[in-house]
Design goal:
Length: 365
């Protein structure tokens, strides 16, 4: 009987230990985010949205905030949902004056690239690139905040904070593609871009980061902006989801090299927890089967205008511009404005990162 009681006690303790693992009670001091317009929460417009900023005009922000906030969607972005999950305040943009960044800060900014201006100058795009807060600059912004965040004890404080590093890469590819570079040329830039991202991850690790999500790029061939500007008469140019194969192959190539690069960093720093955020697979699944994610429309734009293709995207009447209007049910749409997703999509992506299967390993462990 004593042996049986011991077994029962062991099983009870084991089950209790499983139940009490950090999946349910996991917490972080803060969340620090880096990236571009996918997760910017107002860095381009910390003093209010200027009239020239299309994404700073209604109906941006209408779903949740009731006004434009500098977020490129109808409501909240991924990091807003992550902050909410961990009981943290919404991340203030790092450029906000007088902000308290102890519980989080967002360095992401619209138009951000991985590479610095000199790279784009070297490939003949110096005049056309809008290089606003590239990766290196965002790390500098974070370093400037560190004394106010953690004083002299940054290793332990940042070691219990969550870092989201990216997505980086989307704008590095948009610039040359829209600038007329061939797909082969653009693919030639990918190794340099990946090297810059992994180097940035190592810099954060050196500052004290331990838990870091590094997202890949999205399936850009599924974005109505690309589908409209690069529409083809040949069905061979499209995959089964109606996305442009060549553009998606660029994203797949980037993500494959990124995963390899992160594996190398992980082996170098075994105590660090690197998590790959799989934007590509989740968004591709949402296009293929929107109903599985509580959506109705995969490739149709909620906020846009007709007259230029069949996706409700018109480059001359983009969301926030005269002639464009928003749907009344953005919660049913994947795509908000042709290149950014809706709050509903971002909520689903945040959940896919927290619990899996679209983050490897999942944030909650």
């Amino acid at each position: 009987m004593a042996a049986e009681a011991a077994v029962v006690l062991f099983v009870a303790v084991f089950l209790l230990s499983v139940a009490c693992r950090p999946g349910s009670s996991q917490s972080y001091n803060a969340i620090y985010n880096f990236g571009d317009s996918i997760t910017d929460t107002g860095n381009l417009s910390p003093g209010g949205c200027p009239s020239w900023l299309t994404t700073g005009q209604p109906p941006y922000g209408n779903t949740y905030f009731g006004r434009p906030t500098g977020r490129c969607t109808d409501g909240r972005v991924i990091v807003d949902f992550l902050a909410d999950r961990f009981g943290l305040p919404l991340l203030p943009p790092s450029k906000a004056s007088g902000g308290d960044f102890k519980r989080g800060a967002n360095m992401a900014i619209i138009g951000a690239t991985t590479m610095n201006f000199d790279f784009f100058q070297s490939i003949g795009l110096g005049n056309s690139i809008w290089n606003n807060g590239p990766l290196d600059t965002q790390i500098q912004w974070f370093q400037q905040l560190m004394p106010s965040i953690c004083g002299n004890d940054c290793k332990s404080y940042l070691g219990n904070s969550l870092f989201i590093f990216g997505e980086f890469g989307g704008n590095d590819y948009n610039a040359p593609l829209f600038g007329g570079k061939s797909m082969d040329e653009v693919k030639g830039y990918v190794p340099q871009i990946i090297s810059k991202i992994t180097s940035g991850v190592e810099t954060l690790i050196g500052l004290g980061a331990v838990d870091i999500v590094v997202p890949g790029v999205l399936p850009i061939g599924c974005f109505p902006l690309y589908l409209t500007l690069y529409q083809s008469s040949s069905q061979d140019d499209y995959d089964g989801n109606g996305c442009l194969k060549s553009f998606n192959s660029l994203a797949v190539y980037h993500n494959g090299l990124l995963k390899q690069g992160l594996a190398g960093v992980q082996s170098k720093y075994p105590a660090v927890r690197l998590m790959y955020g799989d934007f590509y697979d989740q968004v591709a699944q949402m296009v293929q089967s929107p109903g599985s994610f509580g959506l109705t429309y995969g490739l149709k734009v909620c906020c846009g205008a007709g007259g230029q293709g069949s996706y409700n995207y018109n480059n001359q009447a983009r969301c926030g511009m005269s002639g464009a209007s928003a749907c009344g049910d953005p919660e049913n749409y994947l795509v908000w404005d042709g290149i950014h997703l809706t709050e509903a999509a971002y909520r689903s992506i945040a959940d896919g990162w927290l619990r899996g299967p679209y983050c490897s390993p999942a944030i909650l462990h």
